[in-house]
Amino acid sequence: MCLGPQTPRPPDRNLRLARSRRDKKGGLPPILHEVHSLLARALKKTEALWPAIEQAYALVHQAAHVLTTHDQESGEIVRERYEQVLAAIRKLRASEGPLNSALDTFLKKTESCWPGLFHCYDVPDLPRTNTDLEHCFGSVRYGERRASGRRGAIAALVVRGPVRVLTALAVQRQCFLPRALAFAGLEA
User: Fold this and answer.
1) Do the Cβ atoms of 92 and 107 come closer than 8 Å?
2) Which of 2, 17, 97, 175 sits in a 20 to 30 Å window from 149, CA-based?
3) Residue 105 has what pLDDT?
4) Residue ranges of the chain whose pLDDT lies below 70
5) What residues have CB less than 8 Å from 67, skipping those under 6 apart?
6) Which domain holds residue 142?
7) Contact call for residues 127 and 136 (beta carbons, < 8 A)
8) CB within 8 Å of 31: residues ≥ 6 apart
9) pLDDT confidence of residue 86
10) pLDDT of 22
């Protein structure tokens, strides 16, 4: 079934690719052969690094897993499990491998975050990451923009920001009925 004359195809701009497609059916174009050989050489030169990279990746992945899966565990339990992973990382670091500088950086960053790293496991509803915390503040800013119609921060949010943020977060977590918000003793 023919719907009409076929539109002419534009000429191939890359003649090397066009020639290779015509010469060999199913074969790779020469440029892809070059990329393949380049990758093969790079992998061959870095072959000695891969076991160390694999070990380091497994340990860093395990550290992330300890911090993200908590199953209502206390901060103390998570801290102990994380210290076990850090001990394994230090042991790998002591073996004088090619990734020592990367492991040093990981250990240094962990040490700088250590004082506040496990509070989120002991305090319910405390955001675990900065991204989650920023989301809380962002939702407050979004609500203020919708209520006021202004793009920038309004003065009341700057002056009374802590109270408004806490109120907005409390409202997000729990539905308050009007009778719960009414004053109990109006004479006071």
Assistant:
1) no
2) 175
3) 92
4) 1-26, 70-71, 152-161, 164, 168-169, 171-188
5) 78, 82, 117, 128
6) 130-179
7) yes
8) 16, 17
9) 94
10) 47
